[in-house]
Amino acid sequence: MSVLKVIEILGNSKVSFEDAVQNVINEAAKSVKNIKSVYVVDMQVTVNNNKIKEYRVNTKVTFGIID
User: Fold this and answer.
1) Non-local CB neighbours of 24 within 8 Å, separated by 6+ positions
2) Is residue 35 within 8 Å of 26, Cβ to Cβ?
3) What letter would DSSP give residue 17?
4) Counting Cβ atoms within 10 Å, is residue 9 exposed (0-12), middle (13-18) or buried (19+)?
5) DSSP 33
6) What is the four-CA torsion angle of 28, 33, 65, 22, rounded to 10 degrees?
7) What pLDDT, on a 0 to 100 scale, did the predictor assign at position 3?
8) For residue 26, what are the CA distances in angstroms to 17, 37, 38, 43, 50?
9) Residue 62 predicted with pLDDT over 90
10) Whether residue 1 has pLDDT greater than 90
11) CA angle 51, 55, 60 (to 5 degrees)
12) What's the pTM?
């Protein structure tokens, strides 16, 4: 039987949504092993002078619990 755990992580990037998600994975991997998937719950941008300043993602990271 496989047991998985889910944590919620917010990420950001000045480049793209994809980069923001990769930043979430990179940071999570520093303390969480066996990452299985990342579910993007919400996406937002901040705007300055009518241009996108920052991309933000709210994610749920799923990982397996190691015995």
Assistant:
1) 9, 10, 11, 38, 57, 59, 61
2) no
3) H
4) middle
5) -
6) 40
7) 86
8) 14, 13, 12, 18, 30
9) yes
10) no
11) 160
12) 0.89
* 55 Cβ contact list (under 8 Å, min separation 6): 12, 13, 14, 15, 16, 17, 19, 20, 43, 44, 45
6 to 3, 16, 19: CA distances (angstroms): 10, 24, 21
Phi-psi region of 10 (alpha: psi -120 to 50; beta: other; left: phi over 0): beta
Query: Is the pLDDT reported for residue 61 higher than 80?
Result: yes
Residue 35 · residue 28 · CB < 8 Å: yes
Condensed to tens digits (0 to 9), the pLDDT of residues 11-48 reads 999 999 999 999 999 999 999 999 999 999 999 999 99
Q: CA-CA distances (angstroms) from residue 11 to 7, 17, 49?
A: 13, 9, 23
